[in-house]
Amino acid sequence: MWWYLVLWLCVLTAGYLLFLRWMSRRQIEDRLDAETGESGSPDVERERRSWLGRSLSLAGLRGRYSVRLFILAFLVAVTLGVAAVHQLRKSDVVRGGRIWLEETPGGAGRIIEPALAAVPWAIGILVALFPVLWLRARRRERIRKIEEDLPITLELLAAQGRAGLGLEAGLNQILKGGDRRRPLVQELTLFQNENLAGVPHVQALRRLAERADVPSVSVFVTALIHAEQVGGGLSNTLRSQADELRSRRRERAFAIAQGLPARVMLPLVVCFLPGIFVWTIGPAMHQFINLIEQVLRTTSQR
Fold first, then answer.
1. Domain ranges in the chain?
2. Which CATH number is 142-247 given?
3. What is the CB neighbour count within 10 angstroms for residue 128?
4. For each of the chain's 302 residues, which pLDDT tens digit applies?
5. Residue 178: which of 145, 200, 216 has the closest Cα?
6. What is the distance between the alpha carbons of residues 88 and 97, in angstroms, rounded to a whole number?
7. What's the Cα-to-Cα distance from 247 to each of 44, 150, 164, 240, 253, rounded to whole Å?
């Protein structure tokens, strides 16, 4: 019945309200610590951030209520997953599938019956975990876009450095013509705003690497900090970093291409070969089972 779904929804609502109360208390404590000067360092602030807030930040969700909205979406997804399991288990599709499997000659349907019983639970779990899967896909898409835009950005910075422009001036020119929807442009805009706000240049670069959390960006920031500390040429450093990123992407593409036959093997064995066997041997096996049943019936009648 639907009464346990209503009870489940009430429990989730109560848990969410308790979480909001805990979050408000934590915000008040953080504000008091900030006023007293106990949480002024970025390291302390980073340690106090939860793993969910860190995951949302890496995915580009940095709004004020991002954590609350994600938790609310997760609770709604869990409720919908429970409702989906309840409806699918009571649906006519599952019942018809069970009847069809029971009527299969030779009792072969009993082998597939546990898989049919697990289908509603699998669908419910997928529905419940949809916000998590969406967040993971968004994070992967963000990493892909950053790795696509980074070599071109480094090339432009290197060309502007050879023309006599500094890092800040060249970055300003790139951001003026860049797409604000791209994640790399957003991160560089935050980096530029931190520099204008008075954050030290090295510290702003490290915060840029922490916000992006992409290996290529971390390597670029490390090389840039090292070049500034030892007094190396900025254009040469940026050009070498761009070439290294391209070679790394080329090697990754070659590795994916070499591992493609092994990845294709599992779908081929699991999906295609059973279908081919059923298509070719299935009619013959069905006729053979019917023949055996007729022989058994005739022998029993005698």
1. 3-128, 142-247
2. 1.20.81
3. 20
4. 455 566 666 766 776 666 666 666 655 555 544 444 444 444 334 434 577 888 888 888 887 778 888 888 888 888 888 888 888 777 777 677 766 666 665 555 666 677 777 788 888 889 889 999 999 999 999 998 988 888 888 888 888 877 777 777 888 888 887 788 888 888 888 888 888 888 888 888 888 888 888 888 888 888 888 877 776 667 777 778 778 877 887 888 888 888 788 778 877 777 777 777 777 777 777 777 777 777 777 776 66
5. 145
6. 12
7. 37, 13, 27, 11, 10
Q: What are the structure tokens assigned to 26, written together? A: 């934590």
Tokens describing residue 97: 């599938």
Tokens 């080329």 found at:
250
Distance in angstroms (rounded) separating the CA atoms of residues 245 and 51? 29
- Radius of gyration of the chain from Cα atoms? 30
